[in-house]
Amino acid sequence: MTRIGLVVALPAECRTLTRRRPRRGEPVAVSDTLHLCLSGSGPDNAEKAAHRLAAEGCNALISWGCAGALRGHLASGDLVLPTEIACADGTVLPTHPDWHRGALRYAETLPCKLSTGRLAASDGVIHGRDAKRALAATTGADAVDMESGAIARTATALKLPVLVIRAIADDAATAIPRSVLDALDPHGNTRLPRLMAHLARRPSEIPDLIRLALAFRAASATLRAMRPHLHAPGKF
């Protein structure tokens, strides 16, 4: 039996899968064949979560959550099912081809735009327009996140199939407000009091924050639409 382990960086992304509130680093069962681990953001946290899921008996791994667009043809709420991940060290790792094809067949029934182009893995937040353009040029990627590279490396080392399912939050023209970045804790969670304090000093960033919140809502809706596929991933 295939037991799927999903690595999910943030609590808000976990809510697209379950109403439960998992503790960071502790795998929880969503169903008999589906487990998730709230990792916290970044490659180190993702790697630890992937190993923890494998130790709990998961024999297939998914990187699940949001991504940032690097190219203008992708908008908030679009779905990214990459065939390969360009890691920060220059390594390019493939997702499992058969599993990817099954996910793609399901995704093509959804109303959102779909990208199967390369995903770039970053060690940190890529938040500026110029930084996004530069990363697209150097990697050939359509989108970026911080966890998929580490999850793919772990899956490869453990000889497990891996799939990446990501929805676009910020598009290529969107710069994440400085107030948001300054309010993040080491695990990627937003410290609300600190965010409010920064916004009080930078009120001009409030419209950008509202746009980012709406973008995340669109991405979350796409992830929820993709969720039924997780219960029928196909055979390996």
Report on this structure.
The protein has 236 residues and is α/β, with parallel strands linked by helices. The chain has a single domain, classed as 3-Layer(aba) Sandwich (Rossmann fold). It contains eight helices and eleven strands. It has helices at 11-14, 43-55, 97-107, 129-139, 148-158, 178-182, 192-201, 206-226, and strands spanning 4-8, 28-31, 34-38, 60-69, 79-80, 84-86, 92-94, 114-115, 119-121, 143-145, 162-168. Strands 1, 2, 3, 4, 5, 6, 7, 8, 9, 10 and 11 form an eleven-stranded mixed beta sheet that branches. A hairpin with a 2-residue loop joins strand 2 (28-31) and strand 3. Helix 2 (43-55) packs parallel to helix 5 (148-158). The longest helix has 21 residues, at 206-226. The chain is globular and about 55 Å long. The mean pLDDT is 88.
